[in-house]
Amino acid sequence: MSIIDELKWRGAVNQQTDEEGLGKLVNEKAVGLYAGIDPTGDSMHIGHLIPFMILKRFQLAGHKPVIVIGGATGSIGDPSGKKAERVLQSMDQVRHNQDCLTAQMEHLFGQDGSFRIVNNYDWLSKLSLLDFLRDYGKLFNINNMLNKEVVASRLEVGISFTEFTYQILQSIDFLHLFKAEDVQVQIGGADQWGNITAGIDLIHKQEGADARAYGLTIPLLLKADGTKFGKSEGGNIWLDPEKTSPYEFYQFWINTDDRDVVKFLKYFTFLSQGEIQKLADAVATHPEKREAQTRLAEEVTEFVHGHDAVVEAQHITKALFSGDVAELTASEIEQGFKKMPAVTVSAAKKNIVEWLVDDTKIESSRRQAREDLSNGAIRVNGEKVTDTDAEIDPASAFEGKFVIIRRGKKRYFLARVAD
């Protein structure tokens, strides 16, 4: 199966500029191809990951990926998918973001030298205004630019000249990479089709109509409920572990709807067709076991965060399910309890009834606290406490940083011990 056929099987091909020509090219040689990302933030989220999963597949198939960090275009703003003008960032912020994104790409694509990361600031910043207008602006027809969906969708609300020129800058990227890096294919989301075709047109005008340059776009990924893939109720799922912990990342994937899990296995894992079919069969016959979701969570978490993060996420998941939280580390508690109810308490020892009512407000009254304790409904750091005269020592566990309270079977509370 060729790489293009595999991408089709995975449902990852939306449009190709020349299907026959691209198919021949990838079978003839190790092809240079690129996808880009603008440093509008200091981390990718999982929606950004989609085109780079395609680039990774080409890398594993022996091709030559080039990742473009848009230090120049990121300072301008891509109008694609935006209903209003972007707020321009300072160049210091752009540089910080591009450093962060470069580190993430190096982690995802490895250290074996089989790919390159470049920054379009290195060539676009050298263009003078007159060179831009004379050498490139002259080659772009305004009527054609206005008809591109990315521009047409903004005409009613308005688009600045700055964002209007974005497709020219991205076209220059493709031309530069074609000449300097032997890049012949650009990969992007469905909303990048107009920019990609504009780049190919520029290459043909500059290098000749027979220049072999191609584009491939990826479908907009929708969930079974019709909503756009990539967000949870709490917002974006980030690749930066400080923004979305590996445990939260793992939980996002393991909670995938049965209707979506096979699609996501095809998109986001490197499992073979046979392995995915077995998991698809498991979804059909024993959905309650959630084997496909577990494998999806393991594969994607390991790809993004490494094997140790998978082990840690599974350890936290098991501890919270069983209630055996005493085995967790302070770091694991930070991850697993990040979105659970939390209070700050002093390190002073105190009677448990008073502590549950006055210090944490977990219990509404002393009477209710005594009743819950007597009924065995309260666990402190995984241990059942029934003695109403017991004493809480907040500094006695988890490096003196936390106390974990479970009330009933599932309600957890986290008490953070003040420094």
TrEMBL record:
InterPro entries: aa-tRNA-synth_I_CS, aa-tRNA-synth_Ic, Rossmann-like_a/b/a_fold, S4_RNA-bd_sf, SYY-like_C, Tyr-tRNA-ligase, Tyr-tRNA-ligase_bac-type, Tyr-tRNA-ligase_bac_1
Protein family: Belongs to the class-I aminoacyl-tRNA synthetase family. TyrS type 1 subfamily.
Role according to the record: Catalyzes the attachment of tyrosine to tRNA(Tyr) in a two-step reaction: tyrosine is first activated by ATP to form Tyr-AMP and then transferred to the acceptor end of tRNA(Tyr).
Annotated source species: Levilactobacillus fujinensis
CDD domains reported for this sequence: S4 (cd00165), TyrRS_core (cd00805)
Entry GO MF terms: tyrosine-tRNA ligase activity
Motif range ('KMSKS' region): 228-232
Swiss-Prot/TrEMBL catalytic activity: tRNA(Tyr) + L-tyrosine + ATP = L-tyrosyl-tRNA(Tyr) + AMP + diphosphate + H(+)
Location within or outside the cell: Cytoplasm
Lineage per the UniProt record: Bacteria, Bacillati, Bacillota, Bacilli, Lactobacillales
The protein's name in its UniProt record: Tyrosine--tRNA ligase
Span of domain Tyrosine--tRNA ligase SYY-like C-terminal: 332-414
EC supergroup of this enzyme: ligase
Keywords, in A-Z order: Aminoacyl-tRNA synthetase, ATP-binding, Cytoplasm, Ligase, Nucleotide-binding, Protein biosynthesis, RNA-binding
PROSITE patterns (UniProt xref): AA_TRNA_LIGASE_I, S4
Signal peptide: none
